[in-house]
Design brief:
Layout: H1 3-10, H2 12-17, H3 24-41, E1 49-54, H4 61-73, E2 79-83, H5 92-97, H6 113-118, E3 123-127, H7 134-146, E4 148-150, E5 156-158, E6 163-168, H8 181-185, H9 202-205, E7 210-213, H10 219-237, E8 243-246, H11 248-258, H12 268-286, E9 292-297, E10 303-307
Parallel strand pairs: 1-6, 1-7, 2-3, 3-6, 8-9
Antiparallel strand pairs: 4-5, 9-10
Helix pairs in contact: 10-11, 10-12, 11-12
GO biological process, one term: cellular response to heat
Domain AAA+ ATPase: 47-218
InterPro entries: AAA+_ATPase, ATPase_AAA_core, Clp_ATPase_C, ClpA/B, ClpA/B_CS2, ClpA_ClpB, P-loop_NTPase
């Protein structure tokens, strides 16, 4: 093992937690499994790691997958994502591995096998896997077991250098009370693990290195996510030498505007776009010489962008 990879594995959990908020238990379990496999304690020729992520929408399942791809393979482009609701038909297997000789589409490469053949160091993300056809599920059992697939043209494609993550919302409907920061604050963590047997066979679930449950996000978690998103806004603004300061009141307002119990933190990015980025754009186009900006709340509960130097000056709507 190279020194760089050794250091990477030592700090894997810590690095992931700096990007994925409120899911420390999930991160720890994944990091331990990957570390075990990379030092040779995993089953030979199987993927580097295989995980089933379960839990409500918008709590970090896809984000953790993306950050894993960045940490282990160097780029978010190493993540190959499939929406399994598009593979509900029996013939979907042929879409993934390619049609056999004599069938329509034989000359078209499999959507899964060709990507992995060309980029063996990949993270494969299968979203909402419970929606896939049983034949598709059976095909992935082979990947989890043997670490390889044969494509439509008879070539063997190895998955031993890949990570396979499947996500599922299965069972979260019965644990609805655990969704939302009220639930997180009160410690309600209705587990969905007991519901998975209604959707997946024991044979299927036993193939994974880990079944990872994601928790509801607390308000503090959401504020931390807003901080990360605003840091990204500032990073992009820096190309024009602009800096934005945001008051705590504005951050709390963004959480209130952008949190949806059914969608988790997912709408937050759009909220920041609508209430921060659009407001910055309007202000900057009219005041191109102003480089230090501040987002404040007015007494009427609106978010306003101002010059940081003038932020203390009272306007027709007093800041709070």
């Amino acid at each position: 093992m190279k020194e760089k990879e050794q250091s990477q594995l030592i700090h894997l959990a810590e690095d992931l937690k700096s990007h994925v908020i409120g899911q420390d238990d999930a991160v720890d379990k994944i990091a331990k499994a990957i570390r075990r496999n990379r030092v040779g304690l995993g089953t030979p020729n199987r993927p580097i790691g295989s995980f089933l992520f379960v839990g409500p929408t918008g709590v970090g399942k896809t984000e953790l997958s993306k950050q894993l791809a960045i940490e282990l393979f160097g780029s978010a482009d190493s993540m190959i994502r499939f929406d399994m609701s598009e593979y509900m038909e029996k013939h979907s297997v042929a879409k993934l591995v390619g049609a056999p000789p004599g069938y329509v589409g034989y000359d078209e490469a499999g959507q899964l096998t060709e990507k992995v053949r060309r980029n063996p160091y990949s993270l494969i993300l299968l979203d909402e896997v419970e929606k896939a056809h049983p034949d598709v599920m059976h095909m992935f059992l082979q990947v989890l077991d043997d670490g390889r697939l044969t494509d439509g043209q008879g070539r063997t494609v190895s998955f031993k250098d890949a990570i396979i993550i499947m996500t599922s919302n299965a069972g979260t409907g019965k644990a609805e009370a655990s969704v939302g920061f009220g639930a997180a604050r009160e410690g309600r963590t209705n587990s969905v693990l007991g519901e998975l047997g209604n959707f997946f066979s024991p044979e299927f679930m036993n193939r994974f290195d880990g079944i990872i449950e994601f928790k509801a996000l607390s308000k503090d978690n959401l504020l931390q996510i807003v901080e990360l998103m605003l840091a990204d806004v500032n990073k992009r603004l820096s190309s024009n030498n602009i800096h934005l300061d945001v008051t705590d009141k504005v951050k709390e307002k963004l959480v209130d505007l952008g949190y949806d119990p059914k969608m988790g933190a997912r709408p937050l990015r759009r909220t920041i776009q609508d209430y921060i980025e659009d407001a910055i754009t309007d202000y900057y186009l009219e005041n191109p010489s102003e480089k230090n900006l501040k987002a404040v709340m007015t007494s009427k509960g609106n978010i306003q962008i101002k010059s940081a130097k003038k932020a203390e000056v009272k306007t027709s709507e007093k800041e709070v």
